[in-house]
Design brief:
Blueprint: H1 2-12, E1 13-14, E2 26-31, H2 38-52, E3 57-63, H3 64-76, H4 107-112, H5 115-126, E4 133-138, H6 146-156, H7 161-165, H8 175-187, H9 195-214, H10 224-244, E5 249-254, E6 265-266, H11 281-288, E7 293-300, H12 323-330, E8 335-338, E9 347-350, E10 356-359, H13 361-364, E11 367-371
Parallel strand pairs: 2-5, 2-7, 3-4, 3-5, 7-11
Antiparallel strand pairs: 1-8, 6-10, 8-11, 9-10
Helix pairs in contact: 2-5, 6-9, 8-9, 9-10
Length: 379
Amino acid sequence: MSHALDAWFDRAVLEPGDLDAGDAEVLVLGEFNHFVHEKGDFRIAMARQARRLGFGVWAEELGWSDGRRLARYFETRDEGVFDRLSLFGWRGEARDDRDDRPTGIFRASWETYPFARMRAEQARFYRTLEPGAFHGFDVAAGHDGGYADLLARLQATGAPAAWAQAIARRPGESLQEEAVRLSALLDEAPAGLDPLARADLSALIDGLIYTARVKDAATYAETSPAMAFREDAMKRRLADIRALSPGKLVLMGHALHLVRDDAALAAPGIVGPGGARTPSLGHHVGRELGLPMFIVWMIYGGGEDSQPLADLPRKADFGPDTLNARLAARFDRPVLLDARTAPETPVRIAHMYNTVIETALPGAVDALWFVTRASPLQS
C-alpha cells in the first residue's frame, strides 16, 4: 500500500483550474473540521472553481433563518446582517418565559462557542462569494430569528390574517407544545401559501423539535435520536432549496453529512450524521435522489482547532498510519489531489477530535484539498 500511495501522490496533484466536475449537478465542499482557519482558504479557492463550472446555488450547514438573512446580505452587501446571525451569537428571539439552552452534554459548547472568531472567518469567506442564491440547510432553535422572518414573509405575501396571527408565540408553552401547535397550523395552511413562507414555518417547527430532543441529552450516545431527526430535517430543507432555487447546487458542511454512499465509510464509535439511524444528507442526494455529485474533502496533516467542547481534544494527534500523516510527510503546502485515481485499498483519515474514518477514496470522494497544518480560527 505504501508504494501504491507514493505512486498516486506522484500523479494526483491538480491545479485548481484543472478541476472538472463533469455532469455533476451537486458540488460538495466537505470539511472535516468547522473550527480551523484553513477552512476559509479552502472555500474561497473552491468558490472560484464553482463559479467557473457554473454552480450558482449555494447551501451551507447553518440554520435556515441564518441562510435567509445571509441571502439578504448577498443582495445588499450590508454587513449589519452579520449582527443578527445565530451562527455569530445573536440571540435576539430568545424567549423570556422559557429557557431553551442545552442543559446536557452540549451546555459547554453553548457557553464557550467561539462566536467572534467564527464571525471573522465566515465573513472573510462571504465577502468573496457571489452566489445566485443562498440558503442554510441545518436545523436552528427558536431564538434564531425564524419567527421574525416568517411573520414578515406572511405579511409581505398577503397570507390570511387570522391564520398568520395564530402563529405568534403563546406565553408559557413548552417546546413540545409550541411545535405541536405550529405543526397543526402548517397542516391547515391556506391554499396558495407562499412557498418560502411554508419553508420558513417547516424549518421553525423542525428547529423546535430538534431543540426539545437534544437539550437534555447527558451523553453523546443520548444525542443519537436528535441527530437522526436533524439529518432528516436537512433533507426537508434540501427539498425546499431545490424547489425555491433550481440550478447547479453547492453544498458546504462537515464531510460526514455529505457522503455519496454511507456504506463506503467505516466510522466506529462516532455519533455523527444520522445518529446511526438514518442515512446522511449526502447519501440521500447521491443514492436516494440519484443526483450526480462531485465531492471535494478538505483534510489536514496536524495542528489545532477552536472546537468548543472542553472534554474533547483540540490538538491533532494523527497516527503514522493515517493518510493525513502520509500526506504531511510528502507535501509542505496546500495541494489539490485527484482522488478518483487513488488506490482502491481503504485508507484511514483522521479528523476532528482525533476520530478516524476508513474508506477507499475512489467512489467516496473525487478530490482532496490537503493542508499540512491546521490552525485555530482567527479573529
